[in-house]
Amino acid sequence: MAQETFNSSTTWTCPAGVTSVAAECWGGGGSGGNGSLPSAGGGGGGGAYSKKNTIVTTPGNNYTVTVGAAAGDTSFVDVSTVLAKGG
Protein backbone atom coordinates (compact mmCIF):
# COMPACT_ATOMS: atom_id res chain seq x y z
CA MET A 1 0.00 0.00 0.00
CA ALA A 2 1.46 3.36 -1.04
CA GLN A 3 1.75 6.18 1.47
CA GLU A 4 2.33 9.91 0.97
CA THR A 5 3.31 12.47 3.58
CA PHE A 6 2.62 16.20 3.17
CA ASN A 7 4.50 18.84 5.17
CA SER A 8 2.86 21.82 3.49
CA SER A 9 -0.51 22.60 1.94
CA THR A 10 -1.00 21.38 -1.61
CA THR A 11 -3.40 19.78 -4.07
CA TRP A 12 -3.22 16.00 -4.37
CA THR A 13 -4.23 14.32 -7.64
CA CYS A 14 -5.77 10.89 -7.18
CA PRO A 15 -3.78 8.28 -9.15
CA ALA A 16 -5.31 5.90 -11.69
CA GLY A 17 -6.99 2.89 -10.09
CA VAL A 18 -7.37 4.50 -6.64
CA THR A 19 -11.03 4.67 -5.58
CA SER A 20 -10.60 5.23 -1.83
CA VAL A 21 -7.93 6.43 0.60
CA ALA A 22 -7.29 6.64 4.33
CA ALA A 23 -6.14 10.00 5.71
CA GLU A 24 -4.42 10.89 8.98
CA CYS A 25 -4.04 14.51 10.07
CA TRP A 26 -2.12 16.19 12.90
CA GLY A 27 -2.92 19.79 13.84
CA GLY A 28 -0.05 22.23 14.39
CA GLY A 29 1.09 22.55 17.99
CA GLY A 30 0.54 25.85 19.79
CA SER A 31 3.45 28.16 20.44
CA GLY A 32 4.65 28.67 24.00
CA GLY A 33 3.85 31.79 25.99
CA ASN A 34 6.16 34.79 26.22
CA GLY A 35 7.95 35.50 29.42
CA SER A 36 11.30 36.07 31.00
CA LEU A 37 13.02 34.45 33.93
CA PRO A 38 12.13 33.81 36.64
CA SER A 39 8.55 33.59 35.30
CA ALA A 40 8.96 32.13 31.82
CA GLY A 41 5.86 31.56 29.68
CA GLY A 42 4.14 28.16 29.59
CA GLY A 43 4.43 25.60 26.83
CA GLY A 44 2.00 25.54 23.92
CA GLY A 45 -0.77 22.97 23.55
CA GLY A 46 -0.31 19.98 21.30
CA GLY A 47 -2.22 19.69 18.03
CA ALA A 48 -5.08 17.22 17.66
CA TYR A 49 -5.00 13.96 15.66
CA SER A 50 -7.72 12.68 13.34
CA LYS A 51 -8.03 9.69 11.01
CA LYS A 52 -10.62 8.48 8.53
CA ASN A 53 -10.11 5.03 7.02
CA THR A 54 -12.28 5.16 3.91
CA ILE A 55 -12.63 8.32 1.82
CA VAL A 56 -14.11 7.68 -1.62
CA THR A 57 -11.97 9.22 -4.38
CA THR A 58 -12.11 9.48 -8.16
CA PRO A 59 -8.94 8.86 -10.19
CA GLY A 60 -7.70 12.09 -11.83
CA ASN A 61 -9.61 14.37 -9.45
CA ASN A 62 -7.78 16.95 -7.31
CA TYR A 63 -8.17 17.02 -3.52
CA THR A 64 -7.11 19.77 -1.11
CA VAL A 65 -4.50 19.03 1.55
CA THR A 66 -4.23 21.77 4.19
CA VAL A 67 -1.29 21.54 6.62
CA GLY A 68 -1.57 23.84 9.61
CA ALA A 69 1.46 25.80 10.80
CA ALA A 70 1.88 26.58 14.52
CA ALA A 71 -1.56 26.25 16.12
CA GLY A 72 -3.14 25.82 12.66
CA ASP A 73 -5.74 23.27 11.58
CA THR A 74 -4.85 20.42 9.23
CA SER A 75 -7.43 18.83 6.91
CA PHE A 76 -7.91 16.57 3.91
CA VAL A 77 -10.47 17.61 1.26
CA ASP A 78 -12.28 19.99 3.67
CA VAL A 79 -12.95 20.38 7.38
CA SER A 80 -15.99 18.07 7.22
CA THR A 81 -13.97 15.15 5.72
CA VAL A 82 -10.92 14.93 8.02
CA LEU A 83 -9.90 17.71 10.45
CA ALA A 84 -7.27 17.95 13.20
CA LYS A 85 -7.49 21.20 15.16
CA GLY A 86 -4.33 23.11 16.01
CA GLY A 87 -3.11 23.47 19.61
Key terms:
single chain, 0% helix, 6 strands, mainly beta, two-stranded antiparallel sheet, 87 residues
Structural description of this entry:
This protein is an all-beta fold. It is 0% helix and 34% strand. It is built from no helices and 6 strands. The strands form 2 sheets. The protein has a 4-stranded antiparallel β-sheet, with no helix packed on it. The protein is elongated. The model has no long low-confidence stretch (mean pLDDT 89).
Mean pLDDT: 89
The proportion of residues forming helix, as a percent range, comes to under 10%
**If helices are DSSP runs of H or I spanning 4 or more residues, what is the number of helices?**
0
End-to-end distance, in Å? 31 Å
Q: Give a short account of the largest sheet.
A: 4 strands, antiparallel
Structure class: mainly beta
Number of strands: 6
* Residue fraction in strands: 25-35%
Please provide a brief summary of the model:
The chain has 87 residues and is mostly beta strands. It has strands at residues 10-13, 20-26, 49-56, 62-66, 74-76, 82-84. 14% of the residues are buried.
List the helices and strands and how they pair.
Elements: E1 10-13, E2 20-26, E3 49-56, E4 62-66, E5 74-76, E6 82-84
Antiparallel strand pairs: 1-4, 2-3, 4-5, 5-6
